[in-house]
């Protein structure tokens, strides 16, 4: 008898007709579009692969200080994390303005085989600090 009750209860639930859900979906779509219209979406600077040695990078930085002010070193470490130059590096990229790094720090990052690095442009507000 309990089985018959379950079947009757299960059969009594019917989904709403599609016509009733369409106006709600249209309202939600309009609300989402309205919210995204004025949304500020952060821009993550693209990584520019560096195909030069650390010596070439250091020489380039020494010939023009403005380069160090407009570029950053994007460093990615292993999953477990890695500490170098007083900073923690993991799978989440860390971008350090090149103006804040000395030759010894750059070499330390470059020599660590668990860290990978590339040069990226800095957002305008970060280079002014």
Folded structure, characterized:
It is a single chain. It contains five helices and five strands. It has 129 residues and is of the alpha+beta class. It has two domains: 2-37, no CATH class; 54-121, no CATH class. Strands 4-1-5 form a three-stranded antiparallel sheet. The protein has a two-stranded antiparallel sheet with strand order 2-3. The relative contact order is 0.15.
Mean pLDDT: 75
Strand tally: 5
Listing every helix as H and every strand as E from the N terminus to the C terminus, the arrangement reads HHHHEEEEHE
Globular, elongated, flat, extended or rod-shaped: what is the shape? Answer: elongated
What class would the helix/strand composition place it in? alpha+beta
Cα(first) to Cα(last) distance is: 76 Å
| Major sheet details | 3 strands, antiparallel
How many structurally independent domains?
Answer: 2
């Amino acid at each position: 008898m309990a089985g018959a009750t379950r079947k009757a209860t299960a059969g009594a639930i019917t989904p709403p007709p599609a016509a009733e859900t369409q106006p709600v979906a249209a309202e939600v779509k309009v609300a989402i579009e309205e919210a995204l219209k004025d949304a500020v979406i952060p821009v993550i600077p693209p990584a520019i692969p560096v195909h030069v040695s650390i010596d070439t990078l250091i020489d380039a930085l020494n010939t023009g200080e403005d380069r160090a002010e407009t570029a950053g070193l994007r460093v990615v470490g292993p999953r477990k994390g890695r500490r170098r130059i007083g900073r923690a590096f993991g799978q989440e990229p860390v971008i350090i303005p090149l103006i804040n790094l000395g030759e010894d720090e750059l070499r330390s990052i470059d020599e660590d085989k668990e860290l990978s690095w590339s040069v990226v442009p800095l957002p305008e507000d970060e280079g002014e600090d």
